[in-house]
Amino acid sequence: MTEPHAPSAANALRNAFWVAFDHLGAVIRLNALFLLCCIPLVTIPAAAAGLMHSTRMLIETGDSGAADFFNGIRRFGVRYTVFYGGLILILGAAASSAAFYLYEPTFLRMTLFGWDLAGMILLILCALYSPTVLLLKKRPAGCLKMPFVFTFANTSFTISAFFMGVCTEAVFILSGISIVLWMFPFMALYYHFVYIEAASRFDGQPPRYTEDRSVAKEFLIPPHNNY
Fold first, then answer.
1. Domain assignment of residue 2, yes or no
2. Range(s) of the domain holding residue 99
3. Predicted TM-score of the model (pTM)
4. Considering its fold, how many domains does the chain have in total?
5. What interhelical angle do 44-61 and 183-199 show, nearest 10?
6. Is 124 domain-assigned?
7. Is-contact 11 160, C-beta < 8 A?
8. Distance of CA 207 to CAs 5, 6, 80, 107, 184, Å?
9. What's the chain's average pLDDT?
10. 52 lies in a domain?
11. Separation CA 19–CA 27 (nearest Å)
12. 140-153 vs 183-199: helix axis angle to the nearest 10?
């Protein structure tokens, strides 16, 4: 019987670094494309779809460019916009409710505040997997279910991967130059490898990207022996 693979946030960060290092020219080009497409702020989710798709191609094929980026926007831009627009609305409503519960607190209000806060934390942790899941799952139910499955199946890993991602982004932001050179493709690669690490727990082997499947194990075949 194959021992379950223990997912590691450090492995995800290491793999993201080596892919970005090996394809630094492509990473810089994708970063520039992403920044240009984010100039109208309403297009940020669509630009994120293009970036996630093109970095997925970078992992799978070792090359990616403008064609993959705009193909990602065409195929997944609407899905990303609807999903993240809805997520922002839900989190905004939850934050407003939390503020209301704290105003003249009572035992009932503080109880509701605790549940509200727990729900927001869960949604934020689940969102760690959403950028990749939105590329792989075709049905809305799958896009919503898989992040919750991975979060509950890999709770400690999800928390450590979230904080490692936040710390990495903070380092990039403080460095300044990283924002205009490689920050966004690097983080997209990190999210892909976080998904890969989490999915690999199901049968002990690193997964590869596949199209929509009903069985989780079909996600779990190595895409690239070098990573």
1. no
2. 9-219
3. 0.85
4. 1
5. 60
6. yes
7. no
8. 11, 13, 23, 47, 23
9. 84
10. yes
11. 9
12. 70
How many beta carbons lie within 10 A of that of residue 81, not counting itself? 17
**For residue 9, which amino acid is it?**
A
Which single residue is written with the structure tokens 């002990």? Answer: 204
What are 71-103's pLDDT values in tens digits? 999 999 999 999 999 999 999 999 999 888 888
**Which pair of structure tokens corresponds to residue 96?**
């407003």
Nearest to 126 by CA among 101, 109, 107, 151: 151
CA distances to 108, 136, 178, 194, 224 from 15, in Å: 46, 20, 18, 10, 11
Tens of pLDDT along 143-173?
888 899 899 988 999 999 999 999 999 999 9
Share in percent of the chain as helix, strand, coil (round to 5): 80, 0, 20
Residue 28 corresponds to which amino acid? I
